[in-house]
From TrEMBL, chain A:
The lineage of its organism: Bacteria, Pseudomonadati, Pseudomonadota, Alphaproteobacteria, Sphingomonadales. This is Hydantoinase B/oxoprolinase family protein. GO terms for molecular function: 5-oxoprolinase (ATP-hydrolyzing) activity. One of its GO terms (cellular component) is cytosol. It holds the Pfam family Hydantoinase_B. InterPro entries: Hydantoinase_B (IPR003692), Oxoprolinase-like (IPR045079). Residues 19-533 form the Hydantoinase B/oxoprolinase domain. GO terms for biological process: glutathione metabolic process.
C-alpha cells in the first residue's frame, strides 16, 4: 500500500507560464540550497567519514518526489510506493534498510532522513540526505562484515520510521537505535547534521515559494524536469545506436575465496528510449559483494555521463527518466534477494562506472576513458587502548584516476564526488597509529600516450593491538587501458610483522588481529592508460623519473630508455621500433591484460594470494529470466 | 572635493596619509589630510609591467592637486594584488620543499579532492603543485602526534637533501615536517644548515608560518609564502626606492587580507598574509563610510569587470575567516570573509544549444576585448551591454571623452533575444536579473547561511559597477538602505588610507575545556600578546597605542568546524572558560540550530595586536534645500517595470546634503554611475553618500 499523504490543503498546483529568467533564477536558488545542505552537514557532523571525507549525499525533490537537485537520483518514489504509513506536516522520516527503498540506498550504514516540506498546509517539496555512519552495530566494528552471508549480520536495520511525528520528537526511538551501535556519539551528531541540512533546504524552498508563489515554484520545477527530458532526448537520438553494444567487467572475488563475478550490460535504442539490460550478469553471491542497484540510480548515472559534456551548468534532475529503461535480472549480483548481505557492495558500485564508460565510449573511442573507477578501498581498525578507551577507525582510500582524453589521470585522487583524504596528523592525534609512508606507487598507472594515475601506498603503523578489516578490489582483474593504453597495476595489501616477516593479506579481509608495532602497506590500484605508450614524449618520462612517478624499468613500457636520468635517444628509437614491429598494426580499443584463466594460473606468483575459485551456483539460485 | 584647506599644526609638517590601490585597469589614489579630514582622489591607468610607474605618476598628480610635495606624506598605505597574481598566474618563485621521509608526494596527492560532481574527474585539469615534485626532498627524523621525537634527524642526510635542491637552482625554500606544529626543533636544524648551504635563498618554516595541525594545509601555506616572497621582495623594494627618490620619507605599509596593515618589511617576509589584500581594501573602505554615515551593519557589494566580492560587516566589525582562497588554493591565513562570484560588468551572456537556458558568466570579456559598448573589439553581449541597452548606463559619461556604443550593444543583446524568442529589452533585463541573482546568491552565503538576517543590514555597492546594481540587489535581499558611498570608484584606496596596523599570532591547543585551566590559557595569551605588541612597537608604534585582542577557536570535540570567539583579558578573567563555552553554544545554535552534550574542545588560540585607529571624519557637504534640481544634467529614458520611462540624470559633484532624488534616476560621476530605480528615492546624507530606500 502506498504512503498516504495528509495535507490540510490538497489543492493541486496550477501550471503557470514561466519566463526564462525566472526559471534560471529558481534553478540557481535550488543549486545554492543544495550547497548550503553540504556546508551545514560538513560543519556539524562528527564522524571522520562524513566530516573529513564527505561521504554524504543531499537531495531536493518536488512534491511528487522527483529529484530536482542531487546526485544519485530520487528514491522517494519507490519509498512512497512501499511505505505503509502517512506523510504529514511536522514529520521527519528516517530509514536505513535498502530493501525498504528498492535499493536506493545500498547498505544499512547509510542513514537517510526525509523531510516533507509543507507551506500553508500543502506539500510543496521533499528534502532528504543520507550519510555513511561509522558503525551501526552488528558482528564487526564498522558494521560492514565482508564475510556476512545475510543482512542481519550487518547491524541495525531501520525500516521507515518517524523521528519527528507531526512535530513531536520520538526520543525513545533514537535511544533504542543508538543502543545498537558502537559509536553513538558520532551517530547522534551525524544524524543531527543530516536533519539540520534538510531543515536548511526546506527553509529555502519555503522562501522561494513565498517569493515567487507556490504555483510558479511548482511550475518552474516541472519545467526544469522537462528541460532535462528534452536535452536527454536529443542526446539519446544522436549518440545511442539502435544496434546493441555490450560491455562486461568483473568483481575480483567475494571475500570467501570465489570469483571473479561478471557484470554485463547491453545498451541499445528502441522507440526513442535507451535500454540498459544487465542480462548476463552473474547470479548473486552468498557473500556480501551484492549491490542492490536501484533502476533510477542507474538512470541518473547514465544521464550524468551523457549530459556532462554538453552543458555542465545544467542541474541534473529526474526529468529524463522516462527515456531510459533499466532491466536488472532478479536474483543477480545487482538485484539480490532479501535477506542477502550487502556490506561489500561498494566494489560493484564503482565498477558500474567503468562499465558505463566502456559502454558509452565504444561508438566514440576518442571520448573513451580508461578504467579505474574500480573500488572504494576501506580500512577498519578498532580496539581498546592502554587506558581502556575504545577506538574505531573507518577510512576510505583512493587509487589512480584513469587516463582521459584530456590527459594523464591524476595520481592518488578520488573518483567519488566531494571526497577528500583525512589529514595524517589528524589520524595520528586521534587514533593510536602512525602513517609512516604516504606516497603514490611508481609505474602503477597504466602506460599510454596519457598515463593512468598512480595508486597510493599508505603505510599504517599500529600503536595498539586491535583488529583490522579491509575492503578492496581490482587485485585480481586489472583496470583496463584504452585506445592502445595498457592496464594499470593491481591493488595489494602487505602486513609487516614486528620480526620483519611480510604477509600478503587478502583485499577483502575481516576481523584480522594486529599487534602494536606492526605495519600495514595499504596499496591501491593504478588507473588504466589511454592511447599508444610509444607516442608519449620521452622527455616526460625523464621528468617523471626525477619526480619518482615512474622508474627506469617502467619507462621501457613506453619504449623509452633512460640512462643517468636522461633520454638515450638512439636506444629509445631502436626500442620503439622493435616494440612496434612486435605488436599488431591496429591497437585494440580495450586492453584488459591477460584473460581470466591466465590470471588464475599466475595469481599466486604475481599477487601472493591463491586464485579465486570459479563461483558455482546451485540450479535454484539461477537468475530469473 | 578638492580645495579643502590644509591647516598646519605647530610642529607637524607631515600630516597626510596616502592610500593607493592598484587594480587591473586603474590605479586609484586617495590623499587624506589628517588634520582636517579633507581628501583628494585621483585615478590613473595602471601599468601592469611595473605598477610603480603608474603609482608614481599618480603620486605626483595627486600631490600637485593638493599643493603639497611627496615629502608631506607621512604614511603611504597600499593594497596590492602582486602576491595574488603571482599565485594565480603561476609566476611564483621556484620553491624547494623539505619534507619528512615518506611524504615526498604530499603536494602531488594534496587532499585527493576532485571538484565537479560525479563525473567531474573526466574534465578536471589537475593543477601543477606550487612546489614541484622534482624539487621536493625527504629527510629522516620524525615527531609523534604529541611533539616527541621518535626518530632523530641526521645532519649528513639533511645536507645531502639541501645540496640537491641547491644544484637544481631553487629560488626559495620551504621546510615542512610532519607534526612540526607541535615541535619545530627538526625544522630549526634544517634551517640552520640551509642558512649555511643556501645562504641567499629566503626560507619559510611551517611551524613558524602556521603552527597548526594538518600537514597538507600547513605545507601549502608555507610553500605559498615561499613562492611569492621573492616577487614581493622585489616589488616592495623597488616601490620603496622610487618613493624615497621622489622625496617621500614617511612609512610604507601594505594592506593584509584581514583588513589590517603591515609594514612593508614584514610584508616581504610574510606575503601569504596579503593574498586578499585587494578585496580587503573595499571592505575597510566600507567600514569607514559606515562609521561616518552612522550605519553599523553593512553588506558590501564590490562589482568589478569579471567578478563581484561580497562581505558582511556587523556592528562595524568585518567577519574574518581563517582560510584565504586564491584560485584553486585554500591557504590558511586570516582574511576578511569575502566571497567572490564570477559575475561582473564583463560577464558574458549566452544560450547553450542543448538546454536553451539563459546563462550569464562566469566567462568574462575582461578589459580586452571588453563589452561591445566599449568599442574595443568585443562582440559578445555582456552585463555592461545590457545596462547600456536598458539606459542604466548613459551613452556619454561625465567628462565626455568616452562614448558608449549603444547600437553595438543592442545588436549583441539582440542575439540573445532571438535565441530565447523574446524582445530585446526583456532579454537585456533578463541578463541583469540573472547577474543580480548571482550576486544575491553570494550575499546569502555570507548572511543567511551564517545565521544573519539580511533585513538588519544595509547594502553598500561600490567598485566600477556596484552602484548600478545595488538598488536591485537590495530589493532581493530586503537590505535597506542601498548605499552608493561617496567616491565608490576609489573606495579601496580609501580603505587602505583609513585602516589600522594589525598583527597576529596563532597556536594549536586541541584540548578539552574540562582538562584545561584558566591560568594556563591566560599565561599563553599574555605571552602571545607580548609577542604581537612587541612587533608593532618595533614598527614605531607607542606601546600605549597598541590594543591587544584574543580569539579562541572552539568546537564540540570531534567536529571539523571551529567557531572563533573574540575575547579580551578582562572578560576572560571575569567569566572564565565557562563564559567561552556558553558563548560557543549560543553561536553554534545561531549557525546550525542545535547544541550538543558533547565536550567542548579548545582548538586554537590567537592574539591580535592593533595599532591606533585614526578618527578621521568625512568632510560635510553644503546643506541643500532637499531639491536636487541644481545637480540635474538632462532628461533621460530608461527601462523600468516593463516599459521605457522618463528619468533624470544628475551630476553627483553638484548634489547637496539633504537632497532627495526620486527614482528612476541616474547619478553620474568621474568613475561610477548610480542607478536609483523607479519606486525608490535616494537621499543624500551629510557627507555625500546616497542612501536609497523604497519610496
Amino acid at each position: 500500500m502506498p504512503a498516504q499523504i495528509i495535507q490540510a490543503d490538497s489543492t493541486p498546483f496550477n501550471t503557470v507560464a514561466i519566463d526564462p529568467v525566472t526559471l534560471e533564477v529558481i534553478e540557481n536558488a535550488l543549486r545554492n540550497a543544495r550547497i548550503e545542505m553540504d556546508a551545514t552537514l560538513v560543519r556539524t557532523a562528527m564522524s571522520p567519514g562524513i566530516r573529513e571525507q564527505g561521504d554524504a549525499f543531499p537531495l531536493i525533490a518536488d512534491s511528487k518526489g522527483r529529484m530536482i537537485v542531487g546526485q544519485f537520483g530520487s528514491y522517494i518514489g519507490p519509498f512512497l510506493d512501499g511505505f505503509d504509513g502517512t506523510v504529514e506536516e511536522g514529520d521527519l522520516i528516517f530509514l536505513s534498510d535498502p530493501y525498504s527503498v528498492g535499493g536506493a540506498i545500498s547498505h544499512s550504514n547509510d542513514w537517510l532522513v526525509l523531510l516533507p516540506v509543507f507551506r500553508n498546509g500543502r506539500l510543496v517539496a521533499y528534502t532528504s540526505m543520507f550519510g555513511h555512519m561509522s558503525d551501526i552495530g552488528g558482528k564487526v566494528p564498522g558494521s560492514m562484515p565482508i564475510d556476512a552471508t545475510n543482512i542481519f549480520q550487518e547491524g541495525v536495520r531501520i525500516p521507515p520510521v518517524k523521528i519527528w511525528k507531526q512535530g513531536v520528537y520520538n526520543a525513545d526511538l533514537i535511544k533504542l537505535i543508538m543502543h545498537q551501535v558502537r559509536t553513538p556519539e558520532w551517530n547522534i551528531a551525524d544524524l543531527n547534521a543530516l536533519t539540520a541540512a534538510c531543515r536548511v533546504a526546506s527553509r529555502r524552498i519555503v522562501e522561494m515559494c513565498e517569493r515567487f508563489g507556490d504555483d510558479v515554484y511548482a511550475s518552474a520545477t516541472d519545467m526544469l524536469l522537462e528541460r532535462n527530458y528534452r536535452a536527454m532526448k536529443h542526446l539519446v537520438e544522436t549518440s545511442v545506436s539502435e544496434e546493441k553494444v555490450s560491455f562486461e567487467d568483473y568483481i575480483c572475488d567475494d571475500g570467501m575465496g570465489y570469483g571473479p563475478y561478471k557484470i554485463k550490460c547491453t545498451m541499445w535504442r528502441e522507440d526513442g528510449r535507451v535500454i540498459l539490460d544487465f542480462d548476463g550478469t552473474d547470479p548473486q553471491s552468498k557473500a556480501s559483494i551484492n549491490f542492490f542497484l536501484n533502476e533510477n540510480m542507474m538512470k541518473m548515472f547514465f544521464g550524468i555521463y551523457m549530459i556532462m559534456v554538453f552543458d555542465p551548468q545544467i542541474l541534473f534532475n529526474d526529468g529524463f527518466y522516462d527515456l531510459i529503461d533499466v532491466r536488472i535480472p532478479a536474483g543477480s549480483l545487482l538485484k539480490p534477494k532479501f535477506p542477502s548481505a550487502l556490506s561489500g557492495r561498494t566494489h560493484a558500485l564503482g565498477r558500474l562506472f567503468d562499465i558505463l564508460g566502456g559502454l558509452l565510449g565504444q561508438g566514440t573511442p576518442e571520448f573513451l576513458n580508461a578504467a579505474g573507477f574500480s573500488s572504494s578501498p576501506h580500512l577498519f581498525y578498532a580496539g581498546t587502548d592502554k587506558d581502556g578507551k575504545w577506538f574505531q577507525l573507518f577510512q576510505i582510500g583512493f587509487g589512480g584516476i584513469p587516463a582521459r582524453p584530456m590527459g594523464d589521470g591524476p595520481d592518488g585522487h578520488s573518483l567519488w564526488p566531494g571526497f577528500t583524504n583525512v589529514p595524517n596528523e589528524f589520524l595520528e592525534r586521534y587514533f593510536p597509529l602512525r602513517i609512516e609512508v604516504y606516497e603514490t606507487v611508481a609505474d602503477s598507472g597504466g602506460a599510454g600516450l596519457h598515463r593512468g594515475g598512480n595508486g597510493i601506498n599508505m603505510v599504517y603503523r599500529f600503536l595498539e593491538d586491535g583488529v583490522i578489516a579491509i575492503h578492496d578490489d581490482r587485485w585480481f582483474v586489472p583496470p583496463w587501458g584504452v585506445n592502445g593504453g595498457e592496464p594499470g597495476t593491481r591493488a595489494r595489501k602487505v602486513l609487516v610483522k614486528n620480526d620483519g616477516t611480510e604477509i600478503v593479506l587478502g583485499n577483502k579481509l575481516e576481523d584480522y588481529e594486529v599487534e602494536a608495532g606492526e605495519q600495514l602497506k595499504f596499496i591501491t590500484w593504478g588507473g588504466g592508460g589511454w592511447g599508444d605508450p610509444l607516442e608519449r614524449d620521452p622527455a616526460l618520462l625523464a621528468k617523471e623519473l626525477t619526480q619518482g612517478l615512474v622508474t627506469v624499468e617502467g619507462s621501457r613500457r613506453y619504449g623509452v630508455v633512460l640512462v643517468d636520468g636522461l633520454v638515450d635517444e638512439a636506444a629509445t628509437e631502436q626500442l620503439r621500433t622493435e616494440m612496434r614491429a612486435a605488436r599488431p598494426e591496429v591497437l585494440p580499443t580495450f586492453n584488459y591484460g591477460p584473460d581470466i584463466e591466465t590470471l588464475r594460473a599466475n595469481c599466486l606468483a604475481e599477487t601472493g594470494l591463491p586464485a579465486p575459485k570459479q563461483p558455482v551456483w546451485h540450479p535454484t539460485a539461477k537468475v530469473a529470466a | 572635493m578638492a580645495g579643502t584647506t590644509h591647516i598646519h599644526l605647530a610642529g607637524i609638517t607631515m600630516a597626510y596619509r596616502l592610500g593607493v590601490d592598484v587594480g587591473g585597469t586603474f590605479t586609484d589614489l586617495l590623499l587624506l589630510d589628517q588634520a582636517s579630514g579633507g581628501f583628494w582622489r585621483h585615478k590613473t591607468p595602471s601599468t601592469p609591467h611595473d605598477s610603480s610607474v603608474g603609482i608614481l605618476t599618480g603620486v605626483d598628480a595627486i600631490c600637485a592637486s593638493a599643493g603639497i610635495t611627496p615629502a608631506d606624506v607621512e604614511i603611504f598605505l597600499h593594497g596590492t594584488t602582486v602576491a595574488t597574481n603571482a599565485v594565480l598566474e603561476g609566476k611564483g618563485a621556484r620553491v624547494g620543499l623539505v619534507t619528512t621521509a615518506g611524504y615526498r608526494q604530499i603536494m602531488q596527492i594534496a587532499r585527493s579532492f576532485v571538484p565537479g560532481g560525479l563525473a567531474g574527474w573526466i574534465v578536471w585539469p589537475k593543477p601543477v603543485p606550487l612546489a614541484a615534485l622534482e624539487d621536493t626532498v625527504e629527510i629522516v627524523g620524525r615527531m609523534d602526534a604529541q611533539g616527541n621525537e621518535i626518530r632523530p634527524i641526521d645532519d649528513a642526510d639533511i645536507r645531502a637533501a639541501l645540496e640537491k635542491l641547491k644544484s637544481q637552482g631553487i629560488e626559495a625554500l620551504t621546510i615542512s615536517l610532519v607534526n612540526a606544529y607541535l615541535n619545530g626543533a627538526h625544522e630549526n636544524r634544517v634551517a640552520e644548515l640551509a642558512a649555511e648551504i643556501l645562504p641567499d635563498v629566503p626560507m619559510s618554516l611551517s611551524h613558524i608560518v602556521l603552527p597548526e595541525m594538518q600537514e597538507y594545509e600547513r605545507t601549502l601555506t608555507t610553500v605559498a609564502n615561499a613562492a611569492v616572497r621573492p616577487i614581493m621582495r622585489t616589488y616592495v623594494r623597488n616601490l620603496r626606492t622610487k618613493l624615497r627618490d621622489s622625496g617621500m620619507a614617511g612609512s610604507l605599509s601594505l594592506l593584509r587580507s584581514d583588513g589590517g596593515l603591515m609594514s612593508s618589511e614584514k610584508a616581504e617576509e610574510h606575503p601569504v598574509s596579503l593574498l586578499m589584500s585587494g578585496p580587503a581594501g573595499g571592505v575597510t573602505g566600507a567600514l569607514w563610510v559606515g562609521k561616518n554615515a552612522g550605519i553599523r551593519n553593512i553588506l558590501t557589494l564590490d562589482v568589478g569587470g569579471t567578478s563581484t566580492d561580497v562581505a558582511l560587516i556587523e556592528n562595524l566589525e568585518a567577519r574574518r575567516v581563517r582560510t584565504t582562497e586564491v584560485g584553486h588554493l585554500a591557504v590558511r591565513a586570516s582574511a576578511l570573509d569575502v566571497k567572490t562570484v564570477g559575475a561582473g560588468g564583463g560577464s558574458i551572456a549566452y544560450v547553450p544549444e542543448l538546454t536553451g537556458a539563459l546563462r550569464v558568466g562566469p566567462q568574462s570579456a575582461g578589459a580586452i576585448p571588453g563589452p561591445v559598448a566599449y568599442g574595443k573589439g568585443g562582440v559578445l553581449p555582456t552585463v555592461t551591454d545590457a545596462n547600456v541597452v536598458l539606459g542604466y548606463l548613459p551613452e556619454s559619461l561625465l567628462g565626455g571623452t568616452f562614448k558608449l556604443d549603444r547600437a553595438g550593444a543592442k545588436a549583441a543583446v539582440q542575439t540573445i533575444a532571438d535565441k530565447l524568442g523574446i524582445g530585446l529589452m526583456e532579454a537585456a533585463r533578463g541578463i541583469i536579473d540573472i547577474v543580480n541573482e548571482n550576486m544575491f546568491g553570494a550575499l546569502r552565503m555570507i548572511s543567511v547561511q551564517q545565521g544573519y538576517d539580511p533585513r538588519h543590514f544595509a547594502l553598500m555597492g561600490f567598485g566600477g559597477a556596484g552602484p548600478l546594481h545595488v538598488n536591485a540587489v537590495a530589493r532581493l535581499m530586503n537590505s535597506w538602505p542601498a548605499i552608493s558611498p561617496v567616491s565608490p570608484g576609489v573606495l579601496c584606496a580609501l580603505g587602505d588610507a583609513t585602516t589600522q596596523m594589525r598583527t597576529e599570532t596563532a597556536r594549536s591547543f586541541s584540548r578539552r575545556f574540562s582538562e584545561t585551566g584558566e591560568a594556563e590559557v591566560q599565561a599563553i595569551l599574555s605571552e602571545m600578546a607580548a609577542q604581537t605588541r612587541a612587533e608593532l612597537v618595533a614598527e614605531g608604534i607607542a606601546d600605549s597605542d597598541v590594543t591587544s585582542l584574543f580569539e579562541i577557536d572552539v568546537r564540540y570535540e570531534g567536529q571539523a568546524f571551529e567557531v572563533p570567539l573574540s575575547i579580551d583579558a578582562e572578560t576572560l578573567t571575569r567569566d572564565g572558560l565557562a563564559g567561552i563555552t556558553a558563548r560557543f553554544d549560543e553561536e553554534h545554535r545561531r549557525l546550525f540550530t542545535f547544541n550538543m552534550d558533547t565536550a567542548h574542545e579548545l582548538v586554537n588560540l590567537r592574539a591580535v595586536a592593533l595599532g591606533p585607529l585614526l578618527d578621521l571624519k568625512a568632510p560635510a557637504l553644503p546643506q541643500g534645500n532637499g531639491d536636487p534640481i541644481n545637480a540635474k544634467l538632462r532628461d533621460h529614458e530608461l527601462w523600468a517595470d516593463g516599459a521605457m520611462a522618463p528619468a533624470v540624470i544628475y551630476d553627483r559633484a553638484k548634489l547637496c546634503a539633504g537632497d532627495i532624488i526620486p527614482g528612476p534616476a541616474i547619478v553620474i560621476e568621474m568613475d561610477s554611475t548610480t542607478l536609483i530605480e523607479a519606486g525608490c528615492t535616494g537621499a543624500v546624507d551629510a557627507v555625500g553618500n546616497i542612501l536609497i530606500t523604497l519610496a
